[in-house]
Design goal:
The complex is a heterodimer. By secondary structure, chain A is α+β, with helices and mostly antiparallel strands. Chain A has a seven-stranded mixed sheet, sandwiched between helices. In chain A, strands 14-21-13-20-18-19 form a six-stranded mixed sheet. In chain A, a hairpin with a 3-residue loop joins strand 8 (about 245-250) and strand 9 (about 255-260). The two termini of chain A are about 25 Å apart. Chain B is mainly alpha-helical. The longest helix of chain B is centred in the middle third of the chain and has 36 residues, at about 90-125. Chain B starts with a helix and ends in an 11-residue tail after the last helix. The chains are: A alpha+beta, B mainly alpha.
Chain lengths: ~575, ~300
């Protein structure tokens, strides 16, 4: 209480000083700050999977270890006493509640409660049954035989049968659906055949190993065909029907989603429901886009749980005794700078390598992410299957080395301007970023001054959404940012495959037949060990050619009330599971 | 009078059509392709982009698209958002209660505080009360809403835990955003009321009224305020219009789903049908408020007699 009062005292004092200062000041028009733009999550081509968080979740302080998120295995009080209403702070509004259509990863956050995935990924590359009892992959990797459990019912009472799989997958590839994440996740899908009531055969045009990871997310969860046909265009808007532990009670777009317990739920995976569940009476997802408002709402006790908490508040939130904060590494591809290899002078590999040596990753993390994130080495985050730790030995922050490489490439320092020149032309890079995202603005500004020390002049081009996408799709940039969440190492396809190079996601505009083959081979390889070996080669090649600069592996910062028990974080750090969660009375 | 109102409404219609055409054209002339924004940072071939564009109906001639939108509007906002696929009328109507609630509360606070303090301040110019009030008003116009909002959240929600931070529903969720928005709008109003009242109170007819032996309250309110009101009502009308058009920053800080955020989001994502509908909504609001303000002039000052001259 005393500290609370003294903090209040400081605030009031500050207020008084400010009032006096402003009263003395000349009349100034009220500043009109730019509207805080909602964050659109970075693309999520291969949405991640799930597993208990013990290995990745790092309690913020030793003292907190005891209070750190309970897993399903945690000691549980007498059943019947469990329940409660969870209020969850989401960081962005979204387009539709239907995960097979949506472009937003938060729809999967909600979706894991409303839908069951076909399989669960309990550790990178390790799968167990979800709605599927078992599955088989043909020798050529092109055909999957899926066998469904026979005891599952949709929220509308219809039993789950193989026709729902065919219906859902066919609907995803139908252009009229405008499916987003799911269309990426389903890859080279060809067709589905219903063999019997509980068996479906899924065919692909090419071998497709990432399919298992894709099936472990709600974006490929079966939808009830009757419900979709009945609701028509309103499916995902007024209703969604799944098989999950909670069902939709109400949805006010841009405001809140309320779920209620599905009392019939008996088909949960062991690793989540060994101690029973679901227990929570309701889960309310409140949309609170402002980071500082969301963390204040969590601290005020109004929220029981919140995600995407800002890195700059990590320390203050961690010291709050009423909260448990978790910060697992977010799987996928971390924050990075894509270098347009077709745009001179970045077509010269030496210049790109020089930028790798010139980049002070720790400095960037300290400045932009309050020192919380981890320096990145590879296109894969450190918790991904296939991540190669040797990548960290490739480049270090070394301006002298950067300078030597630029000298070698013919870019000599003009001591008058401090900028390097070749044939009378200054070494100047156009850096495009989203001006409506403070994070990218801060990173770009940091890199501008960082690279300037190596004689590279950076021209910052901050654009709002519309102008930005037009410019970078057309390849006008030298440098632009990337960040990708996802649980399958096939994310490298997004970054390096030539099929994505012309205005697609590979804004390195990098095209290399060897690289394409490696990526395709890896995606076709079902054996995890052999697959990982190919990803090592891909990382090595990408680093040697300095296609892009890996800046920081982000941490997912989530927090909840210490009264909330039984929450499990997935291994990829992206999704919390509430299958057996309850609020201690 | 009745004829005048009818005439004004008739004149408003072409204004609305013109606004809708202008907004439509502006969206087309500024860079950015809605399909490309919709696909965002996702894997998409040019063919896929073309497909999305087709699904959104963006590959049709511009006139057809405008006609489509116009008929949608005439059918009560039946066109659907490109981003969410929901009817634009639903998008607006869902946020209207939140915006109305906040507007009314903030406007009342603004009028009571701004008007009240402004009058009191003008009656005792250069007194300590006047100086203090002016200082507060100065602080009010200088303080950014988002900063004041964050401060209020920190004190009253995180520290004292008196009010919930976010959302809508119930007076306790309205108090903080309404107070913040009300105070910020009260400040300029107070300065205007003070200035306007100071000027009027120096007039000869005030002296006359006092000489007649009228009570001071009647002098101030009946003779002073009534004459000072014309510029004040005009500004109040503009403020009301601005509030009804959505207080983007207040809505964002307190996570309220209002019209303001809808407008900004839809412009940034180039969601044509929603931008069209919301801008049209704002245009209608301003036209109606201007009409009400004009009519009120006639009541405030009988010398402005509307329609009398069959203009």
């Amino acid at each position: 209480m005393q500290t609370r009062l003294s903090r209040l005292g400081v605030v009031l004092l500050a207020l008084a000083v400010l009032a006096i200062a402003t009263a003395c000041a000349q009349q100034a028009p009220a500043p009109a700050p730019a509207a805080p733009a909602p964050q659109q999550p970075a693309a999520q081509a291969q949405p991640p999977a799930q597993q208990p968080a013990q290995p990745q979740a790092q309690p913020t302080a030793a003292a907190k270890a005891a209070a750190a998120p309970t897993t399903a295995a945690a000691a549980a009080p007498a059943a019947g006493n469990k329940g409660g209403n969870l209020v969850y702070g989401l960081n962005t509004k979204f387009d539709t509640l239907d995960p097979t259509v949506s472009t937003f990863s938060v729809v999967s956050t909600i979706g894991y409660n409303v839908f069951d995935p076909l399989v669960w990924e309990t550790a990178p590359g390790k799968f167990e049954g979800g709605l599927l009892e078992s599955w088989d992959v043909s020798a050529d990797g092109k055909e999957y035989t899926l066998k469904l459990r026979k005891d599952v019912k949709f929220h509308d009472g219809t039993p789950l049968k193989a026709d729902a799989i065919k219906f859902t997958f066919d609907r995803i590839v139908d252009p009229a659906t405008k499916s987003q994440s799911a269309l990426s996740a389903i890859g080279p899908y060809d067709s589905t055949t219903v063999v019997d009531d509980y068996t479906a055969k899924v065919k692909f045009k090419q071998a497709y190993a990432p399919f298992l990871n894709s099936m472990s997310t709600p974006v490929l969860s079966p939808q009830s065909p009757t419900a979709v046909q009945k609701a028509g265009k309103d499916y995902g808007v007024t209703t969604v029907i799944g098989t999950g532990p909670y069902k939709l009670k109400s949805y006010k777009p841009d405001q809140e989603v309320v779920l209620e317990k599905n009392p019939d739920y008996k088909w949960g995976p062991k690793f989540l429901t060994a101690n029973g569940g679901p227990y929570l009476d309701t889960i309310t997802f409140r949309i609170i886009p402002e980071d500082s408002t969301r963390s204040a709402t969590l601290q005020s006790g109004e929220l029981t749980f919140a995600d995407s908490l800002p890195a700059e508040e990590f320390k203050s939130l961690s010291s709050d005794k009423n909260l448990q904060i978790l910060s697992p590494v977010q799987a996928g591809s971390g924050w990075s700078a894509m270098l347009n290899v077709t745009n001179p002078p970045l077509d010269d590999v030496k210049v790109r390598q020089a930028l790798e040596w010139a980049t002070d990753k720790q400095g960037l993390i300290d400045t932009v992410f309050s020192g919380v994130f981890k320096p990145a080495c590879s296109p894969l985050t450190s918790n991904m299957m296939g991540y190669d730790a040797k990548t960290c030995d490739k480049y270090k922050f070394d301006p002298a080395k950067a300078g030597a490489l630029l000298d070698e490439a013919g870019w000599k320092l003009n001591s008058g301007t401090g900028i390097r020149e070749k044939d009378g032309k200054a070494l100047k890079l156009d850096f495009y970023f989203r001006s409506d995202s403070p994070v990218t603005r801060n990173m770009a500004t940091f890199l501008q001054s960082n690279w300037k020390k190596s004689g590279v002049d950076v021209n910052l081009q901050g654009l709002e959404r519309a102008g930005y996408f037009d410019a970078v799709r057309a390849g006008k940039h030298h440098v632009q940012f990337w960040w990708e969440t996802g649980g399958d190492p096939d994310v490298v396809r997004v970054l390096f495959h030539s099929s994505n190079a012309d205005g697609g996601t590979n804004r390195n505009r990098y095209k290399n037949a060897d690289m394409d083959k490696l990526i395709d081979d890896a995606a076709a390889q079902a054996d995890p060990a052999k697959r990982s070996a190919i990803y090592s080669q891909i990382q090595d090649k990408a680093l040697n050619e300095a296609i892009m600069i890996y800046l920081a592996d982000p941490l997912t910062i989530v927090g909840g009330s210490t009264k909330l028990k039984g929450v499990v974080m997935d291994w990829s750090g992206n999704y919390p599971f509430f299958h057996a969660a309850y609020i201690e009375k | 009078m009745f004829r005048y109102i009818l005439l004004r409404i008739a004149l408003a219609l072409p204004t609305i059509v013109l606004v809708s055409i202008l907004v439509f054209l502006m969206l087309y002339l500024t860079p950015g392709d809605p399909a490309s924004i919709y696909v965002g940072d996702r894997q998409a071939t040019p063919e896929r982009l073309a497909q999305v564009r087709h699904e959104m109906g963006l590959d049709r001639p511009i006139l057809v698209q405008y006609a489509d939108f116009a008929t949608g509007m005439l059918r009560g906002g039946a066109s659907r958002s490109l981003q969410t696929n929901r009817a634009v009328s639903d998008e607006i109507m869902e946020r209207l209660p939140s915006t109305l609630e906040l507007t009314i509360a903030a406007f009342l606070i603004s009028v009571f505080i701004g008007g009240g303090l402004g009058i009191l301040s003008a009656l005792r110019p250069n007194s300590w009360f006047d100086t203090a009030t002016r200082a507060v008003a100065m602080a009010g116009v200088s303080m950014p809403v988002f900063w004041l909002g964050a401060l209020v959240i920190f004190i009253f929600s995180v520290q004292l835990r008196w009010f919930p931070v976010t959302g809508e529903g119930g007076w306790e969720r309205l108090v903080m955003p309404a107070a913040v928005l009300g105070l910020v709008t009260a400040a300029p109003l107070m300065r205007l009321v003070r200035g306007s009242m100071l000027e009027v109170m120096g007039m000869d007819y005030i002296t006359t009224a006092r000489a007649k032996g009228q009570r001071e309250s009647a002098v101030v309110l009946g003779h002073g305020l009534r004459n000072a009101l014309i510029p004040i009502v005009t500004v109040m009308g503009l403020q009301l219009g601005a509030l009804l058009g959505g207080a983007v920053i207040t809505e964002a800080v307190f996570a309220r789903p209002g019209i303001g955020r809808l407008i900004v989001d839809s412009i940034l994502s180039k969601d044509f049908p929603v931008v069209q509908a919301t801008i049209l909504y704002v245009a209608v609001i301003y036209i109606v408020i201007n009409l009400v303000v004009d009519i009120s002039y006639g009541f405030l000052d009988p010398r402005i007699r509307l329609g009398a001259g069959q203009r």
